[in-house]
Design a protein that fits this description.
This protein has helices at 20-29, 43-60, 112-117, 173-185, 198-208, 221-225, 227-233, 241-247, 253-267, 289-300, 310-313, 318-333, 336-344, 355-370, 383-390, 404-409, 427-440, and strands at residues 8-13, 33-37, 65-69, 85-87, 92-96, 106-108, 123-126, 131-139, 142-149, 151-153, 159-160, 189-192, 213-218, 236-240, 271-274, 305-308, 374-378, 397-401, 416-420, 449-455, 464-471. The protein is α/β, with parallel strands linked by helices. It has three domains: 8-73 and 169-334, TIM Barrel (Alpha-Beta Barrel); 85-160, M1 Pyruvate Kinase, Domain 3; 351-471, Pyruvate kinase, C-terminal domain (Pyruvate Kinase, Chain: A, domain 1, 3-Layer(aba) Sandwich), CATH 3.40.1380.20. α5 links the parallel β12 and β13. α1 runs parallel beside α12, α7 packs across α9 (253-267) and α10 crosses α12. The relative contact order is 0.11. The mean pLDDT is 94.
């Protein structure tokens, strides 16, 4: 089973997409990576969904990637004695550690780490940015604020502190329990929420090791300020536009999205564009024209994947949402302008002076000159195929690996069709197996040329040093 597009689709499973039939239909409609959202659902829910996915993988003989998305810290105000309270513009409002129910003059904020980071003049955003407070005076257990943008405030609403790096780990005790479960289940990717600094990724790496790839969710302005450092430590990145749009003016988010995609392209890390891509399809059977354009823009920019959240997890039309996203991607990739833009982007994704980068750069040039039917990559760790994908060649990438875990993880990468095979012993066998795989997987007919890249000695990760052109 082969996709006819390069960019990948990530879809979230939830109440609307938990049974075997629906999950199968989502996969057939175009999903490459299934997201388990650990902000919702029980351990039994996630276990059951993953079991269905592994069974589906065996039935279809196609590697399927599973992404476990950790909730991360949730900063919220406390309760109110008499329901929602009105906060008038210009009014004084106090936040403190007192657990007593609040009123129109004060509320509890059970997060000492916030008070530790506040300074006079800092802003606090409540309820996804709908209310805005400015700190006038603060201490270790309180903040006296002035309401800048008012409205009704309900209990347990979220709190954001833009422009401040909070002294808090990206992994809460709940996240650590969820991470243990996710790794026990054998997920392929772990999405890390609330990343503020490179140290957050390093902390997750100590716990995860190489058991799963780390997707750093960029949703904090402080993370964008150290973008390249975070991307370098991550295995992949997610542009979490919803949370970015709370702490930053909405008009800044498109430029930041493009900046993140460029950084990931330059460093060769897969990048997912997420949040509200086809939001209206939670209810409607078709998206707005603006939403279709939003998905298309991410593809034109060269993103590896685009993601559905509520559309597939709890929406009324999950299959239609995936089908629509699939059709948008195919339409964009068929546009001659798409290839022009992708080729032009190589100026910002120049390879370094290492042998593997040189081989992959030569591969892209050879494919362009020969109009090869496919690129065949031999890989153990997945690095060869990821390097090939970074080049965004005009021909599809057939990735051959003896490791099922590697094949699954590569389902997220642009243009990569991954297949599990036995390892090869020498260069002649390499070409023969590559040609046979290209025919079997419907990438090349007899007489067509393919470009093969690999590392010698075979079976050694990180040794990409060989390119061979072969006729099928």
């Amino acid at each position: 089973m082969r996709r006819t597009r390069n960019a990948k689709i990530v879809a979230t499973l939830g109440p609307a997409s938990s049974d075997k039939d629906t999950i199968r239909r989502l996969f057939l409609a175009g999903v490459d990576v299934f997201r388990l959202n650990f902000s919702h659902g029980s351990a039994d829910d996630h276990r059951a969904r993953l079991a269905i996915l592994r069974e589906l993988e065996k039935e279809t003989n196609r590697p399927i990637a599973v992404l476990a998305d950790l909730q991360g810290p949730k900063l919220r105000v406390g309760t109110f004695a008499e329901g929602p309270v009105p906060l008038a513009e210009g009014a004084a409002f106090r936040l403190d550690l007192d657990p007593a129910p609040g009123n129109a003059q004060r509320a509890g904020l059970p997060h000492p780490e916030i008070f530790a980071a506040l300074v006079p003049g800092a802003e606090l955003l409540l309820d996804d940015g709908r209310l805005r407070l400015k700190v006038e005076r603060c201490g270790a257990d309180f903040a006296e604020t002035r309401v800048v943008v008012g409205g009704k405030l309900s209990e347990r609403k979220g709190v954001n502190v833009p422009g401040v790096v909070l002294p808090i780990s990206a992994l809460t005790p709940k996240d650590r329990r969820d991470l243990d479960l996710a790794l026990e289940l054998g997920v392929d990717w772990v999405a890390l929420s609330f990343v503020q600094r490179p140290e957050d990724v390093a902390q997750a790496r100590e716990l995860i090791g190489e058991r799963a790839g780390i997707v750093s969710k960029l949703e904090k302005p402080s993370a964008v300020e150290r973008l390249d450092e975070i991307v370098a430590l991550s295995d992949a990145v997610m542009v979490a536009r919803g949370d970015l749009g709370v702490e930053l003016p909405a008009e800044r988010v498109p430029a930041i999205q493009k900046r993140i995609v460029r950084s990931c392209r330059r460093l060769g890390k897969p990048v997912i564009v997420a949040t509200q891509m086809l939001e209206s399809m939670v209810e409607a059977p078709v998206p707005t024209r603006a939403e279709a354009s939003d998905v298309a823009t991410a593809i034109y920019d060269g993103a590896d994947a685009v993601m559905l959240s509520a559309e597939s997890a709890s929406g009324r039309h999950p299959i239609e949402a995936v089908d629509m996203m699939n059709r948008i991607i195919e339409q964009v990739e068929a546009d001659p302008l798409y290839r022009q833009l992708i080729d032009a982007s190589h100026a910002s994704a120049r390879p370094s002076d290492d042998v593997a980068e040189a081989v992959c750069c030569a591969m892209r040039r050879a494919v362009g000159l020969l109009h090869a039917a496919a690129i065949v990559c031999y890989t153990m760790s997945g690095h060869t195929s990821l390097r090939a994908a970074r080049e965004r060649p005009e021909s599809p990438i057939l990735s051959l690996t003896p490791r099922l875990a590697t094949a699954r993880r590569l389902a997220l990468a642009w243009g990569v069709h991954s297949v599990c095979t036995d390892d090869v012993a020498d260069v002649n066998e390499m070409a023969d197996v590559a040609c046979a795989a290209a025919r079997r997987e419907s990438f090349a007919q007899p007489g067509r040329m393919i470009v093969v890249i690999a590392g010698v000695p075979f079976g050694t990760p990180g040794t990409t040093n060989l390119m061979r052109i072969a006729a099928v």
